[in-house]
Design a protein that fits this description.
single chain; alpha/beta; TIM Barrel; Double Stranded RNA Binding Domain; 3 domains; 8-stranded parallel β-barrel
């Protein structure tokens, strides 16, 4: 690859940087740009009705600042802003933000669009980078700064003329990451002076990585340098708007907040130009996972996904952090085993803190359920199939039986080449262990307990009579033992000549009502070293144990 045509992004000359030791203990001010930056990146931009639906979603999630568009750029954008205002769709505690270039006719059109809005941010921008100055505008530093000053002055005059104290001002030296730091600061100081920034009338200075050009730590250095050197720090809010060209927009935004930024702009699921904007869902839930209130409500993330897909016609990757349909799902056997054990341990804990391997947050906290945490394919292990059977059907396959069933599950997955559903796994368990009736069939079984005989032997407390068919031969027997299973084993061995012993046994109820079904699991062995597993289901646990034994006999190799 021709790497020689590229050069490294320059580091920042900063000493004693503090941001690496910082922690985020509260959420920044959030501003959604879904309706502007996100919308302009869509192959099919949203209609007015779709934009209204998206706006209402953003409000319901809890955004208090929402960039609703570039109203001077198109009739649709203008009409949307007017509908929000005229139909009184903007809650009193929500501020709309409108974007405009630093050009007189566009600024005036923008003020026409926000007429009657209670709270609005006019977001002015012009490109300041070396490349934009030299190639696009062919203007020097002073000429570019003059554009920012003239635009700011006009916004100030139009705000004063409107008499609306709810209008605030934001300025972006667009392509900040391509702008010399000293020059970006010089332009921002000129804008602050022109506006008359004060602690009572703060200017939002938005420092975007319009194109992500460096490692996120260097962006954080730039933000810390700017926060150190900007004068009248209490008169500005430092905002960041990171793009994802290098795939580190979330990291850059988090580092920027650690470096002193007060405000973060981004979009749901990272929608935006090229590789997208910073994903506000990810950053907010990153904070949430660290015990910090994100200030946004994603407790019904599936609904957010649905509205987003409908309005934008964009999809969400199944492995997208937090929101993807597979992010809370394990196929790997070792992962499944750890999750299964972790879920049980967590539910038994009194500490109240979430601690489950491979699940950084509780899926229920974002509106997802536990049904799809463990899913089965050819990569899955014994813990996974056991988790599915227990979670979905109440069947608690004992550990000593799990490896045997795992082989059957993997064999089926290999044959089909597909993921197995819980119902397929349940059906396979029954066909492998429960419903076998060949070559041995239990036709009749009667159990009695001799509890009234004071002279009875403990080893003969239970009496049993059975009719069994082995292939074409039918025979009956009576036997006694210390329980139904012991009596059946003695009587069957004596009558059939097939010797076996019970090596493992377990049982439990399926359900909690008086009419709950019982299930028994058994492992048997023969004198020549063969072994087999079986299961039996019945309303009577004694009969379930005998059915399990017959099933195991039918599975002897």
């Amino acid at each position: 690859m021709n790497f020689q045509k590229y050069t490294a992004y320059p580091p920042v000359a900063i000493s004693g940087r503090t941001w690496p030791d910082g922690t985020i203990t509260k959420a920044p001010i959030w501003c959604s740009v879904d309706l502007r930056d996100g919308n302009q990146a869509l192959p099919v931009p949203m209609s007015v009705d779709e934009k209204v639906a998206m706006f209402q979603l953003l409000v319901s999630v809890g955004f208090k600042e929402i960039e609703v568009g570039f109203p001077s750029a198109s009739a649709t954008e203008f009409a949307f802003v007017r509908r929000l205002i005229e139909k009184q769709l903007i809650p009193d505690d929500v501020t709309i933000q409108v974007l405009t270039q630093s050009r007189e006719h566009l600024i005036r059109k923008t003020f026409d669009a926000i007429r009657g809005a209670k709270n609005a941010i006019v977001h002015l921008y012009n490109s300041t980078s070396t490349l934009q100055r030299d190639v696009v505008f062919r203007k020097n530093r002073e000429e570019i700064k003059a554009i920012a000053i003239e635009g700011t002055s006009l916004v100030r005059r139009l705000k004063d003329k409107s008499g609306n104290p709810g209008i605030r001002f934001e300025y972006s030296p667009e392509s900040f990451t391509g702008t010399e730091l000293d020059y970006a600061l010089e332009v921002c100081h000129a804008v602050m002076d022109t506006w008359g920034a004060s602690p009572e009338d703060k200017v939002i200075l938005n420092l975007p990585s319009t194109v992500e050009m460096s490692q996120p730590n260097i962006y954080a250095d730039r933000i810390e340098w700017f926060c150190r050197n900007v004068r009248s720090r209490d008169s500005v809010l430092i905002s960041v708007h990171t793009h994802n060209d290098r795939g580190t927009a979330v990291s850059a935004a988090e580092f920027a907040v650690m470096a002193g930024a007060d405000r973060v702009e981004g979009a749901l699921f990272g929608n935006g130009e090229r590789c997208g904007n910073m994903d506000i869902v990810i950053m907010a839930l990153n904070l949430f996972s660290q015990g910090v209130d994100p200030g946004l409500d994603f407790t019904d993330l599936p609904r957010v996904r649905d509205v987003y897909r409908k309005c934008t016609r964009m999809d969400i990757h199944p492995r997208h952090p937090y929101a993807g349909e597979l992010v809370y799902t394990a196929f790997s056997g070792s992962h499944q085993d750890a999750i299964s054990k972790g879920m049980k341990a967590n539910f038994q804990s009194n500490g109240g803190l979430w601690a489950v391997p491979y699940l950084p947050i509780d899926p229920r906290d974002v509106g997802c359920n536990y049904e799809a945490i463990v899913r089965i394919n050819s990569q899955s292990g014994k813990g996974g199939m056991a988790y599915v059977l227990e979670t979905d059907y109440g069947i608690q396959v004992p550990k000593w039986m799990q490896p045997d069933f795992a082989e059957a599950v993997q064999a089926l997955a290999d044959r089909t080449g597909e993921e197995l559903s819980p119902s397929q796994i349940h059906d396979l368990f029954h066909s492998e262990y429960v419903t076998l009736k060949e070559p041995i069939m239990l036709k009749k079984c009667h159990i009695a307990w001799d509890d009234m005989d004071p002279d009875r032997n403990e080893a003969e407390a239970t009496s049993l009579s059975c009719i069994v068919q082995v292939e074409e031969r039918e025979f009956s027997f009576e036997a006694k033992g210390n329980g139904p299973l012991d009596a059946f084993a003695k009587g069957f061995v004596k009558s059939s000549g097939m010797e076996f012993s019970v090596e493992e046994y377990a049982e439990h109820a399926i359900g909690h009502s008086a009419g709950a079904t019982a299930i028994a699991y058994i492992k048997i062995g023969t004198p020549d070293g063969r072994m087999a597993f079986g299961a039996g289901v019945d309303s009577n646990i004694s009969l379930a144990s005998i059915k399990a034994t017959v099933s195991a006999l039918n599975r002897l190799p």
